[in-house]
Amino acid sequence: MWEQIMMAVSGEQALAGERMFRMPSCLLKPTRVVLSHKPWALFILIFVFMSFAYHKLYWGIWADPKGRGPPYSLFPETSCAHSVPSSLNIAAGPSPSAQNVFFVETAEQTTPSYLFSCSVESAARTHPTSRVVVLMKGLANGNTSLTKHWAFSLLSCFPNVEIQPLDLKELFSGTPLAQWYLQPQWHQEPHFLHVLSDACRIVLMWKFGGIYLDTDFIVLKNLQNLTNALGIQGDDVLNGAFLSFKPKHEFMKLCMQDFVQNYNGWVWGHQGPELLTRVFKKWCSLRTIKSMSCKGVRALAPEVVYPIPWQDWKKLFEAVSALELHSLLKNTYAVHVWNKLSHETKLEIPSQALLAQLYSQFCPATYTKMKQDSEALSRRAV
């Protein structure tokens, strides 16, 4: 039976090849005419045939969506067989019923960090049936040179990862934020990139629904069952680094309205955590935020997605035992790394630091790259 299947496949491939390279009837008559004239005309015939064959080969490969990688992807420099588990390699593709997972880069960022790569990799591994969509403003102008960076090659190994340009005007169209985006003065504000990111996430949740994550998360578990939810970071404040909502949810509509009506881009967090906190308090008629479900929206306890408080971010770089790590993360779905505070701190690779262990377990392909780079630096230093 197996030999019959292989013979059938080989036969189909041979027929496909014959169809691909068969000269069309429109070229047969000119061919006879050319051959009946001067010998040098044979050169012209060969040139025309080779051009036609190249054209068929090129479009035969790229016309099939299954043959394409995500936009702006390269054939990976890394070995995908070693980077991605076989269960992902053979995945039929994202499930239509699964929520999308969104990441957004609003800066003209052209060199993704290890943490950026780990965030996307860990989300792709824990959500194999979801589309993991990375929207990057730096790609909006067709800057395909970004694909030369190692992170793009590594992430192209994952069949569910898509790296797309971030078209801000199109994203905000049809929402209360459309007019705000067209006003030039907000570009002069000190936190405008963060405010722009705050705007993108609530509009994505409103328009498309799904899961939004900042690019300084390491995802430990599938987040699909955390629907219409956001996390408490502590100190009576909700944080929007993680959001999960159904499309067109009323809570997100209120967030968009508040974004415009109470806009103040000069105060750090006013359009982000403070906005979500004040809308949730109005939504639930609360004075103090606590872990609860109210009118279909859940405020998750800090340990779910913010197990390390921002005040204690240095703990990420402290050594912990495997038992301590398990105890710390038993109720955790994702770990926020607080990159704004931690990005200048050197992480020793390999080490028993909490963050190093998270890299090793939840984004092993990125961790391997980190180790290789660390070893190369050590060799050059000798």
From TrEMBL:
Pathway: Glycolipid biosynthesis. One of its GO terms (molecular function) is lactosylceramide 4-alpha-galactosyltransferase activity. It is a single-pass type II membrane protein. Its EC number is 2.4.1.228. Residues 245-369 form the Alpha 1,4-glycosyltransferase domain. The chain crosses the membrane at residues 40-59. It comes from Cyanoderma ruficeps. It holds the Pfam family Gb3_synth. It catalyses: a beta-D-Gal-(1->4)-beta-D-Glc-(1<->1)-Cer(d18:1(4E)) + UDP-alpha-D-galactose = a globoside Gb3Cer (d18:1(4E)) + UDP + H(+); a beta-D-Gal-(1<->1')-ceramide + UDP-alpha-D-galactose = alpha-D-Gal-(1->4)-beta-D-Gal-(1<->1')-Cer + UDP + H(+). It comes from the Eukaryota. This is Lactosylceramide 4-alpha-galactosyltransferase. PANTHER family: LACTOSYLCERAMIDE 4-ALPHA-GALACTOSYLTRANSFERASE, LACTOSYLCERAMIDE 4-ALPHA-GALACTOSYLTRANSFERASE ALPHA- 1,4-GALACTOSYLTRANSFERASE. Signal peptide: none annotated. It is an enzyme of class 2 (transferase). Belongs to the glycosyltransferase 32 family. Keywords: Glycosyltransferase, Golgi apparatus, Lipid biosynthesis, Lipid metabolism, Membrane, Transferase, Transmembrane, Transmembrane helix.
